[in-house]
Fold:
Amino acid sequence: MSNIGIAMIGCGGIALANHMPGIALCRETKIVALCDSNPEVLGKASRETGITAASTDYLQIVGRDDVHAVIIATPNFVHAPIVLAAVRAGKHVLCEKPIAMSHQESLDMLWAAEEAKVRHMTAFTYRFVPAMRYMAHLTRTGAVGQPYHVRTCRLQDWGTRSVGWRQIEKLAGSGELGDMLSHRIDYAHLLVGDMERIVANTRKFLDKRDGQVSELEDWVTILAEFKNNATGVLESSKVATGRGEGGRSQDYCEINGSEGTLVYYLERPLELQIGKKNGANLQTVTVPLEFQTWPGSPRNPSVGDPLVTFRYDQDVEFIEAIRNQRPCVPSFVDGAKAQSVMDAALLSNLEKRWVEIA
Structure:
């Protein structure tokens, strides 16, 4: 495929800030159509981008002949119907996380995409942070030996500010679990492997945000046992007072093993801390140049804010997978694995017990 036409379905902040600059990096690829259920958001995006092919009806958009692939950045509850409509129309799909409202729904999406023989990708954006890429490489090549523990946390301070549809159960499914801990679940899968069982707890501290009812959890934690006998602790909060929000708030991941330790901080995306068996304290190393951009990305890693520019590489990966007719990384398989853990976490919190992972 030479020229690839992309439809952006959901034209809010994530689409404008992350995906559109990412697609702009891709050769012979352009956004040809926009879709959003909110006419005001759609009109704003159309004016800012100059793209006039726009509709509030996603069925109209996925049916267009000039659309070869779609990027879905909508509220969670419409991910599945849009994905299923897109793959029925033969379109490749990049979907924001969490990809579904349940594990079964995520499996339906995966199976439909596989049957249609289209590329499918889950937007686990933080996999593309250079330090996380290098951390995963070192883990795969034995730097930590047998994994013992993984711990990761995302601590932000949103105060009482509204988080929009993300605080409504029927639109989001879960709160901090799906919004931010889903990425940390993916970290754990990437670094350690599949979980065997978990116990989880959630807490809603705020009943209202900006005067609007808030139905979902502000904090969540998971204690995990992995199939390879490793253990894990995963935590995420929107009410960690004083931590701020965005890329400079706390996003931390550490893995300890028989041979060493690796430590990642999002706010230092081009550095990693490494501890070796019988060695001195943790040493900070610079991420090698080969890991500072995703394979195939034309992005210059020395240009722009590295806390922002890594996000563009996920769109490059999507387009390169389409061009080369290979699986995307990460795919709906990874999205479904995370969804199985999320379902188990909600059940564990409800029934106050350990839950086996599907």
